[in-house]
Amino acid sequence: MKLIIAIVQDEDAGRLVSSLMSEGYGVTKLATTGGFLRAGNTTLLVGVADDKMTGAMAIIEKICKSRKQIATSPSPVAGSSGMYVPYPVEVMVGGATVFVMDVEQFKKV
Ligand code: 2BA
Prior knowledge:
Layout: E1 2-8, H1 10-22, E2 26-33, E3 40-48, H2 53-63, E4 67-74, E5 86-93, E6 96-102
Antiparallel strand pairs: 1-3, 1-6, 2-3, 4-5
Ligand 2BA binds at residues 7, 34-37, 39, 41, 91-94, 97.
């Protein structure tokens, strides 16, 4: 068995959960925050049998789209004032950031 940890954009999360559930995957949805943008994203935990991995990854790839996002990032400290000056940066976010781990044990007690 594997555990998929998929960090996705909030815009894709609802459709992704529905698609995974309708194909029989168990899903847990967590509200998370990206370290760089400090904006909300969604992390899904999906426990899957080894032979179902390809199907789960195909659904994630189909639904999660890359998007440009404008974020406000702090510049280095400006001179002696010690003030942070925010400036906009454009970054390409997603489709999905996916980690796959081996599951040693899976129990429902
Ligand atoms: P954030 O950390 O908010 O990052 C959002 C996007 O900002 C990233 O998209 C990337 O395009 C850009 N970015 C991140 N760090 C950067 C930096 N130091 N300089 C310039 N641009 C930077 P994605 O790579 O698609 O990542 C989307 C979200 O996935 C991340 O949100 C974070 O929550 C998660 N993530 C990505 N890589 C990760 C990792 N190695 N470990 C844990 N979480 C990760």
